[in-house]
Amino acid sequence: MNNLSGTNWQKNIYVNGFSGAKPLIEVDFEKLEQTAKTAMTPEAYAYISGGAGTGSTMRANRGAFAKYKIVPRMLRDVSVRDMSITLFGKKLSSPLLLSPVGVLEMVHEQADLAVAKAAAELGMPYIYSNQASKSMEACAQASGDSAHWFQLYWSKSNDLVVSFLERAEKCGCSAIVVTLDTTMLGWRTRDLEIGYLPFMEGKGIAQYTSDPVFQRLLDEPEVTEQINRKINWQSVNGLIAMVNNYPGNGFVSKLKSGRPIKAVRKFVSMYSNPAVTWEDLTFLRQHTKLPILLKGILHANDAQKAIDYGMDGIIVSNHGGRQVDGSIGTLEALPSIVERINAQLPVLIDSGLRSGADIFKALALGANAVCIGRPYVYGLAVAGSAGVYHVLRNLLAEFELTMGLSGCKNISEIKRDMVIPEA
After folding, report:
1. Number of structural domains found in the chain
2. Which of 76, 104, 179, 195 is the most exposed place for a label (fewest CB within 10 A)?
């Protein structure tokens, strides 16, 4: 589409450079990550950048993209290029969506609102995180008429699950993304090394504290595990953060109410539900009319089950390498899943995409759309909403140029034989 023209964006960068103005953020991903690292606290960088165990799954994600090579075709009219796709009956300006990333208040004070604003400017769907720093209602207001989805972590309270679904529908979300691979936290080495989990400070639980069912659950008698906690300046600072992060005014009144502490305890006790099975998906279907996508699918048999249980789409994902160390890379898993799905429902992919070339490869291998996570978070850390916007524009520009230079004027012309595995 003309307003997202890659050549125009590229030309603007060069024209501005001629006048002495460098790009707002680094164009190279590795340089962007390093700049973002200096803009974040060590705790924030560990949480955003880290993976499970030795980090082998993160390397597998990148290795899978490196394995495939693009085979450009020549002398095709690509003077007018169109990146638009249709997903669940709605036309989107590009095949790029924003993956849910939690606890963005660690990165920027505007957090999810800054991301929603940038996504809306580009007409790009933003999948609101279940672990957001801002409520879905606030994000929906920032998104305006732009498409937005909601990611659901299945908690131990079905009443809370239903409440989240109802709120998502009311605030205009057009799909539900159920994350399947986080029934427990993975062994995240960087977080463990510093002994830090942001939820313990009441960060990343805005969807919960803004929910009427969750507030009702806070009034129920607590069954708490007895843990001997050290009282020192660090634990006191953690308590202060916990109270400050709880909604409402008046530090003393919030502290006296005990609700900030109760909220963190309640969240930790019910955050995820490892007992959920395929049969439970019927419960979701009964409580929402929105399309339901399953996020975390890596095996063709599970993709088939998504069809069997009446789901509307899947996202091939390993949670950015944050859950299972030694897992298969997502692009490596994609072809067999696409073959099994056989166009019966949309297949999206995330985890490891870093460039326009990566987007092209994923689409060539059969993905209907792709999702980006860490890159936009690094843009947020460096320059807020504008940083997110620039990261996304750079990705779109590179993808559109890659598409055109490979001989494709639209998404439908990106074919399987345009990428080959490395010998």
Report:
1. 2
2. 195
Residue ranges making up the domain that contains 238: 203-270
Region of 416 (left: φ > 0; alpha: ψ -120 to 50; beta: rest) is alpha
**What dihedral angle (degrees, nearest 10) is formed by the CA atoms of 105, 185, 307, 68?**
80
Between 274 and 223, name the one with better pLDDT.
Answer: 274
DSSP state string for 317-375 = --GGGTS-TTPPPHHHHHHHHHHHHTTSS-EEE-SS--SHHHHHHHHHTT-SEEEE-HH
Catalytic-residue membership of 299: no
Catalytic residue among 108, 287, 299, 319, which?
319
pLDDT attached to residue 2 = 47
**Local structure of residue 78 (DSSP, 8 states):** -
pLDDT for the residue numbered 1 = 39
Q: How far apart are the first and last CA of the chain?
A: 36
**Beta strands 369-372 and 347-349: pairing type?**
parallel
Distance CA 369, CA 349 (A): 7
Mean pLDDT of the region 245-259: 84
Q: Which of 233, 251, 270 is the last residue of a domain?
A: 270
pTM assigned to the model: 0.95
